[in-house]
Design a protein that fits this description.
Blueprint: H1 3-10, H2 24-31, H3 36-50, H4 53-65, H5 74-80, H6 89-99, H7 105-113, H8 126-136, H9 141-148, H10 156-168
């Protein structure tokens, strides 16, 4: 993706106190596409193939702006999550959490104990906490078992959030 195309897509993002400066129709017209979800998926797969962190971010911005389904992105997102070369781990966990699907449990469970290098500074373990809350929202035994497996975690923040989610689910 060219810097100009990245700037165009960045115009879809909502900044602090500001709305988007571009429309989805402008972006789609530039790329000669009519379907934002299909374009976002295509851009995401291309960025993954090239291991381009900036273009992953652009694809996720386009995904959000297009109001695209997360379901269609499940496979590439679960493949992308453990890669160290990008910075969108928290966004991926948030997106997977919206699905509330047992199919996301393995990736969300990984996010509870794996810390990407770029988040190594975060003593509050925001990535793990987001994953725990996402697990808490998924019905069924897969998510419950993942949470139960974290009850004795050595990190107090993780244990506390796991207990909160188990209590919220009525499984404490």
């Amino acid at each position: 993706m060219t810097p100009e195309e990245q700037e165009l897509i960045m115009g879809l993002a909502v900044g602090l106190g500001e709305g988007p400066t571009r429309t989805l129709d402008e972006v789609l017209a530039h790329f000669g596409e009519s379907d934002g979800e299909a374009l976002a998926l295509s851009l995401l797969r291309d960025a993954m193939e090239r291991q381009d962190a900036d273009d992953v971010e652009m694809a996720l911005i386009l995904h959000a702006a297009a109001g695209a389904s997360v379901e269609e992105f499940l496979e590439p997102l679960t493949e992308l999550f453990p890669a160290e070369w990008h910075r969108d781990h928290e966004d991926i966990v948030r997106m997977l959490g919206r699905l509330r699907s047992p199919r996301t449990v393995p990736t969300l469970a990984l996010a509870t104990h794996w810390v990407p290098e770029h988040l190594d500074w975060d003593e509050n373990r925001a990535l793990a906490v987001k994953a725990i809350w996402a697990l808490g929202a998924i019905p069924g035994p897969e998510a419950r078992d993942a949470l139960e497996g974290l009850r004795g975690d050595g990190n107090e923040i993780i244990r506390e959030n796991v207990l909160n989610q188990l209590a919220r689910r009525g499984e404490l």
